[in-house]
Write a structure and sequence with these properties.
about 0% strand
Length: about 160
Amino acid sequence: MIDPVRWQILSEMIIAASRGDKDEVHKAIMRMAKEVPDDGVAGTYLWFLIQYHVAKLLGHQPTADELHQLADDISARFLRAVPAARTDQSILERALRTVFDLAAEEEQVAGGRIVVVGAAALGVMLDDPSAQLESMRPLLAEWWRRYQDDFREQGLLDEIRRR
């Protein structure tokens, strides 16, 4: 089962990013920090959503060069949604490469940063975020169910159950 609080906040962040509304993105980030433990679950949701959307967008799993081009194509919209990312110009591409296991270990984006960057990146890639997120939600739920034993071993399900 998808945690409704995480899903709601991620959706708010993604939709705000798609509109380029940095204030609403910031509010969702603060809400996430306050209401959701930094346990990797939200990042795991985003990992699936980004992998699914980018593969659907390109018609195949991307190469590092394609992720570089994608990051370049969406960077202006991304920076409107997350202006603080201007201090680290490579974070968008590094986050995309992290999601697709194409980043060197020292380049990987993790923790809360992958949630913020990933949500904003996904948001600016979506044409109709509300509808697209709703169509992806059951796919995420099915994937989550399919791999729940792996997630349980990683401790991801225990935190949700404690809430």
